[in-house]
Amino acid sequence: MISKKTQNSPLHNFLLTLGVEVKNTQIFDEVFTHRSYLNEHKSVAHNHNERLEFLGDAVLELVVTEHLYKTYPNPEGELTNWRSAIVKGEMISQVSRQLNLGSFLKMSKGEEQSGGKERNLILANLFEALIGGIYLDEGYAKASQFIHTYLIPKLKKIIEEGTYIDSKSRFQELIQNKIGFTPRYELIDQDGPDHNRMFTIGVYIEEKCVGKGQGPSKQKAEQAAAADALTYYL
């Protein structure tokens, strides 16, 4: 049973605006607790949200897969590409940000001061944890309803604009069709310790740098550089 104090809490009221009717408050306390918060608050009784994120990731993939299977007669390969595009971290972090989930996330002061509440990975994980929490508290149908309300509508644009094709492939195809040239990628900079390295990559058309991107791996930095270049050429 939920106490009157909990019913009037900002988090409880916020979740109601999203269509989430909380039954077990501890589940949602976990949803909105980052691992770093527990390092500063040893007496907190509940866990952080990583296990719920693990669960939510599986529920999210099943709901999207079911929707694609029932809605589109396309071949398996296309459905797989569409699913990958809509459940990727970049997309679900965008939805998490639009819903303002990060404002309710509890984390350490250091993590928050370093921009943790705006970090794509953390926001994507939070979105998945919330799905996991809804699934545990209200069941599959409610979790599916939440995903259909806030994420599935973005699928139409993904398909129409072809954004399910990765940025490097899209940019290479575009440039080859336009000028018959294959873009090349060069490392501009790398920074940070080995366990937290950040790479900066430039993509070049002949000698001109037409896009730059950063990422924790060269592959991700190249994708970011291609995405940056696409904004110029599209």
From TrEMBL:
Function recorded in the entry: Digests double-stranded RNA. Involved in the processing of primary rRNA transcript to yield the immediate precursors to the large and small rRNAs (23S and 16S). Processes some mRNAs, and tRNAs when they are encoded in the rRNA operon. Processes pre-crRNA and tracrRNA of type II CRISPR loci if present in the organism.
InterPro entries: dsRBD_dom, RNase_III, RNase_III_dom, RNase_III_sf
Name of the top EC class for this enzyme: hydrolase
Subcellular location field: Cytoplasm
Organism classification: Bacteria, Candidatus Berkelbacteria
Keyword Cytoplasm tagged: yes
Catalysed conversion reaction: Endonucleolytic cleavage to 5'-phosphomonoester
Domain RNase III: 11-139
UniProt keyword tRNA processing, yes or no: yes
Protein name (database record): Ribonuclease 3
The entry's keywords: Cytoplasm, Endonuclease, Hydrolase, Magnesium, Metal-binding, mRNA processing, Nuclease, RNA-binding, rRNA processing, rRNA-binding, tRNA processing
Active site: D57, E128
Source organism of the structure: Candidatus Berkelbacteria bacterium CG10_big_fil_rev_8_21_14_0_10_43_14
